[in-house]
């Protein structure tokens, strides 16, 4: 078994998360939290969502946000890694100034997005599931488009 395989590393990651969650639960975390409540009331950085229509609005809003974030990440990050940082790439798609601008804008976008997510969207587990589902759908769509433009062995 190759420990550098994506299948192995993802399996290890899920096992680690499951063990960590069980440990934190038995250590007393999550018991007094409203994060796992379904529906209102939900407190997001001091603002209390008290109605179902507003709850649904925020669920859609956070899911849309994650869709845009997934799109930005799945297109800009590979450019940075495969064109700017890969030593085998001797002619990037964009100029040096444009490439450095893309890299800097992506870094600042990522930090702003992290602040946005931490400060609000992880305040409720259902919001988190909506974000996770949207992230999976958008990344599947983007990766499917990349894979259909290549010859891929369907067996493995």
Overall description:
The chain is mostly helical and 156 residues long. The protein has helices spanning 6-26, 52-85, 96-119, 125-148; strands spanning 42-44, 47-49. The chain folds into two domains: 1-32; 40-148, no CATH class. It contains four helices and two strands, in the order H-E-E-H-H-H. Strands 1-2 form a two-stranded antiparallel sheet. Helix 2 (52-85) packs antiparallel against helix 3 (96-119) and helix 2 (52-85) runs parallel beside helix 4 (125-148). The two termini are 15 Å apart. The mean pLDDT is 83.
Summarize the structure in short.
By secondary structure, the protein is mostly helical. It contains 4 helices and 2 strands; from the N terminus they run αββααα. Strands 1-2 form a two-stranded antiparallel sheet.
Structurally, the number of domains stands at 2
H-E string: HEEHHH
Strand order of the largest sheet: 1-2
Strand content: under 5%
Features:
two-stranded antiparallel ribbon; 4 helices; mainly alpha; 4% strand; 2 strands; globular; single chain; 156 residues; 66% helix
